[in-house]
Write a structure and sequence with these properties.
The chain is an alpha+beta fold and 523 residues long. It has 17 helices and seven strands. Strands 4-5-3-7-6 form a five-stranded antiparallel β-sheet, covered by helices on one side. It starts with a helix and ends with a helix.
Length: 523
């Protein structure tokens, strides 16, 4: 058995080594070249792009030979021609799709439509997601759940390997690691159909890499990357067809970790930037490595190491289902740390949004405090002591350390009437409850105060000690409703002082008139 697989791998590799340069020469003569046209291309000269023809031809010849030998040696009992064609025929459809795309540049919706048809064909051939451990360990999924899941899986994996085909040898090399994992899993689970097809595919890819590694003399093209991706999605389905464990789902997901990671980042990145999901960009994982200073070859080798790490972790799941939590935690931690090094600005926004969700409860509580303060302003005529007390109770919990009121009237008001406000210059007084040094505050929000007639009254300044601490209150609330309410309160406080001053000014004249009247009566 071991000799059979070794010989199969070697023959598939030799077939690829012979067919690939022949296809390359034909493609060059036909003028089907990939010419560098934008920043997403890493090559500087035209390169043949129909490497998928070599992959398809080498795989087909080697697979026919391998299954013929398997039938003679009785290595694949129970594997019928119909079962084999259930994978190979839809794979041929995907190859034709990719070939037409390489030549004519088909639209994304047409490509997804044909891929969905191939996935449906695969499903009717007996290869689909019929059991899902996360859903149930024993119940078979119904048609209306199984078919959409199968189509989604096929489209995801097929296009994942197409997306990472941005550097010489990257997609093919990553696929080689994934194929070897599928082969190992199939051997352990005694699935001869998957074992034979995966070892043939591994050999063909290995031979093709001789011409595809940097500097590449031929590219996979969509015909190659889509064909390989579809085959891997189908082989993953076939290898876990009769398994009901969570591990059956986790192994292919982890094994395809690198292309799946790039797909997730691409979708997230384009969605957050408001760009079409099907338009290419220059921020794939491999592009980021190049921008970080890695050479072309170094970037590919780094990603090979990542793909190998994903593969090794997926194999550890075969030993025990209890390992799945630890492996997924390790994968998640590794992905997070690795992606941090790529410095995606979109992830900073995602992290900020996550922190905002985490703090939303506290923000809501602080907003309520501000609203309660606003409710007391219109219903009362407050003095500055009461006003400052309400401002402190409303704003301190949101991270503010003090306020200042800047209005012309402050200049002539006696400081005892402003307490606890302290005059800091002509027309401005401040009250700091968490920091007695106004110069130490690093952040300031200025709100314009307006009178009831709409005229400018002055400014209210809100201070915070640190500019880096999160603002745990809605800015729109402060800048709109709160500003209007505090304007009313400040205007009334100033009005109370003005009324008191006028009363004091009138009091001496009244007393003088009373004294004069008394003198007249006495005389």
């Amino acid at each position: 058995m071991t000799i059979y697989y070794i010989v199969t791998f070697v023959l598939a590799t030799l077939a690829s080594l012979v067919i690939t340069p022949a296809v390359r020469d034909v493609v060059i003569r036909g003028g089907w070249l990939d010419k560098p046209s934008d920043g997403r291309h890493s090559h500087t000269k035209a390169v043949p792009r129909l490497g998928g023809v070599a992959i398809f031809a080498g795989f087909t010849l080697a697979a026919v030979a391998a299954f013929s030998a398997a039938q003679l040696l009785d290595i694949a009992p129970g594997v019928s021609i119909r079962t084999l064609l259930g994978i190979l025929l839809p794979a041929c459809l995907i190859f034709v799709l990719g070939l037409l795309d390489d030549i004519y540049s088909l639209g994304p919706y047409l490509k997804f439509g044909v891929q969905a048809v191939a996935a449906l064909w695969l499903y009717w051939g007996g290869f689909g997601i019929h059991l899902l451990a996360f859903y149930s360990r024993h119940a078979t999924l119904g048609f209306f759940m199984a078919l959409p899941l199968t189509i989604f899986w096929v489209l995801l994996i097929t296009n994942a390997f197409n997306l990472i085909d941005g550097l010489d040898g990257l997609s093919a090399g990553s696929a080689l690691f994934s194929t070897l994992i599928i082969f190992a899993v199939a051997l352990i689970r005694h699935t001869p159909l998957v074992s034979i097809l995966s070892i043939v595919l591994a050999g063909v890819i290995f031979g093709f890499l001789r011409y595809n590694f940097h500097p590449a003399s031929i590219f996979l093209g969509d015909s190659g990357s889509l064909f390989i991706g579809f085959l891997l999605s189908a082989l993953a389905l076939a290898s876990s067809q009769k398994s009901t464990t969570v591990v059956a789902v986790a192994i292919p997901v982890v094994a395809f970790g690198l292309p799946l990671l790039d797909v997730c980042l691409s979708v997230l990145r384009r969605y957050m930037n408001g760009k079409p999901l099907f338009i290419g960009d220059e921020d794939h994982v491999h592009h980021k490595l190049i921008k970080r200073g890695f050479s072309h070859g170094q970037a590919v080798l780094v990603l090979y190491a990542v793909a190998a790490a994903f593969g090794i972790l997926s194999l550890t799941l075969l030993h025990s289902e209890l390992m799945i939590g630890f492996v997924l935690l390790l994968v998640g931690l590794g992905v997070w740390l690795g992606v941090q090094q790529l410095r995606y600005v979109e992830l900073y926004e995602v992290a900020a949004f996550a922190r905002l969700i985490w703090r939303r409860k506290r923000i809501t509580a602080n907003n309520l405090q501000v609203r309660r303060a606003m409710e007391s302003f219109p219903n009362q005529s407050l003095d500055f002591a009461e006003l400052c007390h309400i401002l402190q109770s409303a704003l301190a919990c949101a991270g503010f350390c003090g306020v200042s009121i800047s209005v012309p009237q402050v200049g002539w008001i006696d400081e005892t009437l402003l307490f606890p406000l302290r005059r800091i210059n002509e027309g401005e007084a401040s009250y700091l409850w968490a920091n007695q040094d106004l110069l130490a505050t690093q952040w300031q929000l200025k709100l314009e105060l307006t009178s009831s007639s709409g005229a400018r009254l002055g400014d209210l300044n809100l201070f915070r000690e640190s500019a880096s601490d999160p603002l745990l209150v809605d800015m729109n609330l402060l800048g709109d409703e709160f500003r209007i309410a505090i304007s009313v309160a400040v205007e009334r406080a100033l009005g109370r002082i003005s009324e008191g001053r006028e009363a004091q000014e009138k009091s001496p004249s009244i007393l003088a008139r009373a004294a004069s009247a008394n003198q007249q009566v006495g005389s």
